[in-house]
Design a protein that fits this description.
By secondary structure, this protein is an alpha+beta fold. It has helices spanning 14-17, 68-73, 75-78, 94-102, 114-122, 129-143, 159-163, 167-172, 177-188, 190-194, 201-209, 216-227, 240-249, 256-263, 270-279, and strands at 2-6, 30-33, 36-43, 46-55, 58-64, 145-146, 154-155. Among the domains are: 2-84, TATA-Binding Protein; 114-227, Endonuclease III, domain 1 (Orthogonal Bundle), CATH 1.10.340.30. Helix 5 (114-122) packs antiparallel against helix 9.
Length: 299
Amino acid sequence: MLQRAVFPSTPLDLPRTLFGLRRGPHDPTCRFDGEGIWRASRFASGPASLRLVTHPDRVEATAWGDGAEAALEAVPALIGMDDNLDGFEPNVHPLVARLWRDHSGLRIPRAGAITEVLVATVLEQRVTTFEARRSQSQLVSRWGEPAPGPGDLMVPPDPEILAGVAYYDLHVLGVEKKRADTLRRVAANARRLDALALLPPAAAHLRLLQMPGIGAWTAAEVALISLGDPDAVPVGDAHLPSDVTYALGGEAIDDDDAMLEILEPFSGHRGRVIRLLGAGGIHAPRHGPRYSPRDIRDA
């Protein structure tokens, strides 16, 4: 067990900052509880469990496993201490200004773990949230391993193992061939993909788009979690254009171009505005099924 404390220079809302890391309340790799956040991940030095607890002046981190030292080194970037607010002008829109006052501790994390985040995000392509989370839980339970330490978590599967999984075994988990092929391709290129974390966010984002099966929605979701890109916009989401245009323009328009146009005044921080709208629970009125297929542009 290793420990360290980090001291953010600005207010920090840790659960909202790390919201995207957890795939639902039953995610076997990540858990939020009343006292803090648990996360299991893989590093070059091995698997690790990480426990984060927020105090008024600091975040205390405790890690277990062969990857514990690497996990602790990554904590400042993980909790958004590298997030750069330069150029962000929330007062451009009164709603954004209010949300920023209410949620000024929300940061864009730079979590790394690109392969792990990509696998979970690919599972969300073109299916309901329920289906994606069920597949992710089953995938981790079958090919992952118990995480070190007392957190009772599971470490995501070793990419070498996942790359060799037969299509039939993924099909049983509800993953059709196109997503299965993308998952195995991501796993087979894990080392190259994880190295993208060393690049500037915009450059890494472009590299993600060069991989077959990774479209604009998937790349943006990964960029907002793994790369610390505050400008990433998940184009192709089933509900996001309506939510954004309704919030910022008063009329729900289900069109990506309309969403991008209304976000233009926040260029450089469009993903941050989207996260703030989510933190505020602001959505357009729903007239269709509660769960709709996502990521249609990555088809």
